[in-house]
Design goal:
CATH topology of the largest domain: Zincin-like
Distance between the termini: 47 Å
GO biological process, one term: response to stress
Pfam families: SprT-like
Number of helices: 5
Organism: Marinomonas rhizomae
Number of domains: 2
Structural class: alpha+beta
Strand content: 5-15%
Shape: elongated
CATH class of the largest domain: Alpha Beta
Protein name: SprT protein
InterPro entries: SprT-like_domain
Helix content: 25-40%
CATH architecture of the largest domain: 2-Layer Sandwich
CATH superfamily of the largest domain: Metalloproteases ("zincins"), catalytic domain
Largest sheet: 3 strands, mixed
Length: about 170
């Protein structure tokens, strides 16, 4: 059965979601042929926000995609992000939780099934933060999200990867 959306979207997102679902179905079909097995299709939506272009929620069998990033370069998004996330679902349906998310099995699906370089990162711009919090170490300034700032205020200690100093709160930026 082909993929479907989980909700009705507005503001032109229906067209975007249709393109994403079509590409995901194409990816699942490629995997079906390659493995000689019919994989269970995932639900797709455009609920992904923040820094991630997409996520695969394995136990829910759900694919979430970031509409902000899709709009930047739809062709690149469809050719890289959708296969990346479908590959996670394929690997999960074959191996369960016994493998690493970007391990050799996922890399093999990306290369052999989709003919793509198995990259963990994207080059899309991320949406601007609504509010950031400035922290310092001995070598540079760091911008924290509200979530990370809240965790730091509750006692989570963050260390700079460069100088290995503990990050100290400076002020909030709006």
């Amino acid at each position: 059965m082909p993929l479907s959306s989980q909700q009705t979207n507005t503001n032109g997102e229906e067209d975007v979601l249709t393109l994403v679902i079509d590409k995901a179905n194409e990816c699942f079909n490629q995997a079906d042929v390659f493995f000689g097995h019919k994989f269970k299709r995932s639900n797709c939506n455009l609920k992904q926000r923040g820094r991630a272009a997409g996520t695969a929620h394995l136990q829910k069998n759900e694919l979430r995609f970031n509409p902000f990033m899709f709009q930047q370069n739809p062709a690149e998004f469809l050719e890289t992000v959708v296969p990346h996330e479908v590959a996670h679902i394929i690997v999960f349906q074959i191996y369960g939780n016994a493998v690493k998310p970007h391990g050799k099995e996922w890399k093999a699906v990306m290369l052999k099934v989709y003919g793509l370089s198995p990259s963990r990162t994207h080059t899309f711009d991320v949406p601007p933060q609504k509010q950031s919090y400035e922290y310092r170490c001995s070598c540079q300034r760091h911008q924290f999200t509200k979530h990370r700032h809240t965790r730091a205020q509750k006692g989570v200690e963050y260390i700079c990867k460069g100088c290995h100093a503990t990050l100290q709160f400076v002020n909030a930026n709006k």
